Amino acid sequence: MFSGSIVALVTPMLPDGGIDYKGLEHLVDCHLQQGTDGLVIMGTTAEAATISFSEQLEVIGRVAAQVSGKIPVLAGNGTNATAEGILRTRELDKLAIDGFLTVTPFYNKPMQQGMLAHFQQVAAATDKPVLLYNVPGRTGVDLLPETVAELAMTDNIVGIKEATGSLTRLTELQQRCPADFLLLSGDDATGLAFMQAGGHGVISVTANVAPELMSRLCQLALSKQFAAAKQLDDSLQGLHHQLFIESNPIPTKWALQRLGMIDSDFMRLPMTQLEPIHHQIIEQALQQAGLLA
Fold first, then answer.
1. Measured on CA atoms in the order 196, 201, 203, 204, is the torsion positive or negative?
2. Is 21 tagged catalytic?
3. For residues 134 and 142, is the Cβ–Cβ distance under 8 A?
4. Which helix (H) or strand (E) holds 169?
5. 3-state class (DSSP) for residue 14
6. What CA–CA distance (Å, rounded) separates 262 from 256?
7. For residues 118 and 220, what is the distance between their CA atoms, to the nearest angstrom?
């Protein structure tokens, strides 16, 4: 159900800081038209950390209604407090979503046993599928393969977004987890190698600005047309890397505005807009991908 090119969608904002719902609708339409296989709403790239939960409910509800079952919609429900995560999951569960992306508890750095109990209890608050999300560079904590393997025994924990960028980590997960456990890359730069080694797709930042190209890349990789996939991936490597030249999603929002896909690259503080010194670097990456003349 969750495979291929899944976009970690940005949240368009107005210059006054409000959510740009018209812009959001346009972005979702672009992904529906250009072959994106699934949407993650209110993950890291969506700036969930600066968006109130009531706003998150509104955004996710609108997107789910617009998509209307055409492709899967995953809602970010991660928190660093288990009780809060349970409450949020129960509220989000009322929406017409297809599952959850649950990040490791951030900042407070729990031990493996604490993360095990956290994910088990949050997953128990819903019957919908749950994908784990491991991104140590953001959260300060690493969900280890042996803990993932134990969590994979929970009926509705169906996979993981693994964002370490380590293919060794993928091998460890394959060795420990059931064959039907979904393994999704959270690192665009190594996404092709991840799929070539048996992964099932990518939850992608690059797909925000290149939805059709990322969709085609994943289709080629998953059908084992690796030479063609590599040729396409080579043209996207600039974006894979330079979209992280500043903290995500600062460069992505600038690129989307440059391409005319959103009207404003506004971000709520403490996130700020892309420094001018980096504008040309992102433009060059867009040109390398064939998205700008």
1. positive
2. no
3. yes
4. helix 167-176
5. coil
6. 6
7. 37
Is residue 161 flagged as an active site residue?
yes
Which residue in 21, 107, 128, 161 is the catalytic one?
Answer: 161
pLDDT in tens, 27-64: 999 999 999 999 999 999 999 999 999 999 999 999 99
- Length of the chain counted residue by residue: 293
Q: What region does 127 belong to: left with phi over 0, alpha with psi -120 to 50, or beta?
A: alpha
Residue 210: name the closest of 160, 261, 278, 245 by CA.
Answer: 261
Fold of 4-225: TIM Barrel (3.20.20)
| pTM of the predicted structure, to 2 decimals | 0.97
For residue 137, which amino acid is it? G
Pull the structure tokens for residue 29.
């339409």
- Residue 131: both structure tokens together: 């994908």
d(CA 145, CA 162): 10
Instruction: Give me the residue spans of the domains in the chain.
Output: 4-225
Indicate the helix (H) or strand (E) that contains 130. Answer: strand 130-134
H/E segment holding residue 5? strand 4-8
For every residue of 207-241, DSSP letters joined together read GGT-HHHHHHHHHHHHTT-HHHHHHHHHHHHHHHH
- pLDDT at residue 262 in the model: 98
Given the residues 133, 224, 230, 253, select the one marked as catalytic: 133
